[in-house]
Amino acid sequence: MLVYGKNVSERILKDENLCRNIKTIYTDEVFFKKNSLLFNNYLKSKIKIKRNFELDNLAKGVHQGIILDMEDYQYISLDELVQKDIDSVIILDHIVDPHNFGAIIRTAVAAGIDAIIVPNDRQVLVNSTVAKTSVGAIYDIDIVLVTNLNNTIKKLKDNGFWIYGTVMNGENYTNIDYSGKVCLVIGNEEKGISKLVKENCDYLVTIPISSKIDSLNASVAAGILIYEVVRNRK
Length: 234
What we know:
- This protein has helices spanning 6-13, 16-19, 29-34, 52-58, 78-82, 98-111, 128-133, 149-158, 195-199, 218-232, and strands at residues 2-4, 22-27, 47-49, 66-70, 88-93, 115-119, 142-146, 161-172, 181-187, 203-206.
- By secondary structure, it is of the alpha/beta class.
- The strands form two sheets. A six-stranded parallel sheet has the order 7-6-5-9-8-10, with helices on both faces.
């Protein structure tokens, strides 16, 4: 997986554990000279100095003079997750915009959420854009890849979680008690959460909005709900 951009690359290059996952570093001469302290001696054999147009051809986005070719991202299994001491999880019900996914990951890490669960179809997975948007937060949280969200919800319930789905006509999100093990379900940008997932939720919650707006961006809605959970549990 290619990871590019100044902030996310600096975050990775400063982490000795993450550096082990770097296969090759592509950088232009300007970035290399300005940030020479980032490039540890044991990585120098992996550094390839490229012209800017060569970096443009590698990255399908704004690279800012630095691209890291990383080992593929490692998801964990649901079985591994439920064996851990966790009490806050987010399920993404087919989010397709990588910027939304990356922003949700970053907010989840900032708020101390334990994990994010995503389906393996009709859902954007961890990619270069997600890594950049999250500013490397993909490496600070467990991300679980599952084949069936409804079976996943059942397993979470069996492990003591309450499931809170986000809808347009549910209970005001500020009136809900989030004191137990919490799983927030954030729906698809256009369709919201799917019918079966909605039926399997314990609570359906809504963020009130002005009649001038149809809906909130998925990552904005997730951020509001995540911090309400944090506030409620203090």
